[in-house]
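Lab notebook, bench 4. The sequencing result for the construct came back, and we need a structural model before the next group meeting so we can plan mutations. Quick request posted to the team channel:

Model the 3D structure of this chain.
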Amino acid sequence: MMGRFFSRRAALTAALLLTLGAAAPAAHAADVKVMSTVALTPALGELIPKFESGSGNKLIVVYSTIADLKKRIEAGETADVMILSRAALEGLLTQGKVAEGSIVNVGSSYVAVGVHTGAPKPDISTVEKLKATLLAAKSISYADPAKGGASGVYFAKVIDRLGIADQMKSKTVLVPGAEAGELVAKGEVVMGVAQASEIAAVPGAQVVGPLPGDLNSAIVFAVGIGSTSKDPAAARSLIEFLTGPAGSAVLKSKGMDPA
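Done. Here's the predicted structure in token form:
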């Protein structure tokens, strides 16, 4: 009798432990550090909770401009996953900062003009019409070139090329990162220039279109694994998620062309 009792008790204990083990989160759950360009802030804001709930891993994300992140990585800061321009990642690869064979394109976006939702879209279909539109605008915002934002650096060169830098100074509001679309949505400026994905993601702002002709500038964003990542498997799982169907759908909804 006692033997049967202890056998039954052992069986029940084993079943309970199996049940608790099945209900517990994955033992391999990891903290994954991500360094990402601000251009992907809208998309990652939606994707992070989905990835975390599906994988059990926790993402620790650092956002900044491409130039700033590249400088920090070159100085020794690192991450499991780096999301920058393709060109920046390939440069870091040559320095041994990115794992060989890990770089994958995520999507692309172009430098765009944006205005408040519902406002008439200005004609920027030619270089001359863009110039006239900029001169007529009461106010405009774009990323401060001194901060290294790719769209701001590029657009400052466009204004110089158009020969209107002096005329634009008094009505320009420079922002540190991707906030130009937000200022447009709030009505604080009439026009904003940023990555199309950054403008499209802001409620109250709408994309007018890309810069015309040979002024048009597209940027390819890519993702890579840091060469010193302590959990490359978790890093790869994030990359697969970002470049898979769920990630591509969100990127597209945020105004970016998935890879």
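The domain at 31-108+220-258 is CATH 3.40.190.10 (D-Maltodextrin-Binding Protein; domain 2).
Will bring this to the meeting.
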